[in-house]
Structure prediction request, 343 residues.
Amino acid sequence: MSIMNVAHAIRNGNGRVVSLEIVPPAVGSGIKAVFERLDPLVNLGVKYVDITYHAEQVVEYEYANGDRFPVSQRKKPGTAGIAGALLGRYGQRGVEPVPHVICAGFSRHATEEYLTELGYLGIRNVVAIQGDPPRGPDGRKQAFSPSPGGHRYASELVRQIAALREGTYVGAKEGEPVPFTIGVAFYPEGLTQPMDLGRELEILAIKEREGADYAVSQMVFDAEPFLRYRDAAEAAGIALPLVPGMKPLSRKRQLQSIPGTFGCAIPPALRAAIEAADDGDVPRIGTDWAVRLAERLRAEGVPSLHFYAFGDTDLAPVLEAVGNAGRRSRTSEGVALPSGEGI
Prediction:
């Protein structure tokens, strides 16, 4: 079984590479649901699957001798285990698992142990991000602070992973190299408002210098912010392949929850269409928008397409349509793309 270098596949895929991002199931759920979700999507040509990692959450406090002690739990554990399971189930079909590695909750030594475990499993592609801060018992996000001996910024995490490619370890100083390919995140609409494009590009450039191989965007529903960022990155000398991350909306409540969680805007035309629709029509509208957005971005030369498979979104119609569009583009010139404000 050969191991795919995700960055190489993206660079040489001519826009044909399609990938997914999944969330581990909650404690008490099994791997069966993951396979049931992915089996039909893998059949539609998915090349790699990102697996998110979730920091521990304080679920309660215990008291002893007048002192209060937090009790933590990782409610969606198993990133490494799922990566190994996906490799075993889909590896012979050329599908690569790409687990996330995060700063939140990890010291450098704990990061090294996790990466060592991934290496033993045969994993050679990872995504390095800061990660969401943990939540308290009330469910609210706490302020991010690095663990003692850990990393504050994703660029520092990239540096540590890149060092393993040279056989440089934290604990053992020198050892066997582990040739990880490193993906990172970028934010064409910014994580905070107002958007500071110069600062966002500076952060991505640092990640590239530290050893990142490719970058995937936050969720985008509008091609223009992504394309502006891409063009500015190229002008700034950033050579990383930049991949758009997309998700078809399936419920009206996502018009509020997704911008608040992921820092992205919903284009007015999409928002108006969903607000005016019956609940049962929302998935169709979301699918149509995602397909047209993917076709527009592919026509603009993006190297690959990444879809967030969170929640109950049915991605099969999107992947089927994107795949058919790809086959048409190889056999005909000048595919006419549907127009739409925000696409």
Remarks:
- The longest strand covers residues 57-64.
- Residues 6-331 form a domain with the TIM Barrel fold (CATH 3.20.20.220).
